[in-house]
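Project standup — Tuesday

K.O.: blocked on the structure for the chain from last sprint. Re-posting the sequence here as requested.
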Amino acid sequence: MNMKPDTFLDLSGHTALISGASGGIGQSIALRLAEVGAKTVLHAFNNIDMVEILAKEIRDNGGQALILSCDLSAPGMATNLVERASKAGFIPDILVNNAARQDVKALQSLSLDDWRAMFAATLDSAFALTQAVCASLIAGKTPGAIVNIASIEGLAPAAGHAHYASAKAALLQFTRGAALEYGSQGIRVNAISPGLITRPRLDEDWPEGVARWKASAPLGRLGKPEDVAMAVLYLVSPMSAWVSGSNIVVDGGMLSGANW
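H.V.: unblocked you, prediction finished:
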C-alpha cells in the first residue's frame, strides 16, 4: 500500500452511521468524522433537538448529515433504518454503535425488566445494526469498518453497575465474534472502552467521584468526548487497515494499575 500521509485520515466517499448521536460522545464522533469528509447518518431515539443542532453544525461546515430516529431494540427497526438511509443516498460503510443506557442501581434492587432494558439498549441495538449494515455491505461487495463503544466497566465494573458492566462486557465479546465472522468479507470490527468522560454538570452531580478519578488516573484528568472520537477516527481510517477484533482502552491510564 503506497499512500500519502494526508490520505490516511480522508474519509471522503464514505458514509458513517452513528447510533446514539444525541449525547456528547456521539456528537463528537459525528463531528470528527464529518470533518474529514464522511457523510453522516445521525441516529437518536430521544433528544432529537440535540441531533438537529448537530446536523446543522455539520451542514454549516460543508458536510452532509441525515437524521433518522427509531428504537433500535424493536424487531426490524435496525434494518429499516439502514434501508431508509440507503434510499436517501447515505449507504453506510462505517458504523459506530454508540447507543447505550447508563443508570446506577444496586444489584439487589435490579429487576428483570431493568436488566433486559439495559441489554436491549446497549447490546441488542449493536447486534441488530451490525447485522443490518453488514448485510448491506456484503450485498454490495463493499468493505467496511465497525466500532463498538464499550466501557472500561466491561473490564472492571463499578458498584451499582452490574447490569451496565455486564452489557458492556458482552459487547466486547460480540466485537470479537463479529470480527471473526465478517473478516472474510473485508469488514473490520473493533471496540473502544472509554473511562470517565466529562459532561455538563458532572462536577456538580458527582464531585466525590470526579475527585477520586482525577486522583487515581495517571494522566490526572477526566476524558473528553473528543478523546473517544479520535480513537474512533483511527479505527475507521486506513491507518488501522489490519486491526480487527481489538479493544482500545481510552481511560487516561486508569486500568494500568491497581486503584484501591
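K.O.: great, moving the ticket to review. Residues 12-252 form a domain with the Rossmann fold fold (CATH 3.40.50.720). The chain is about 45% helix and 15% strand.
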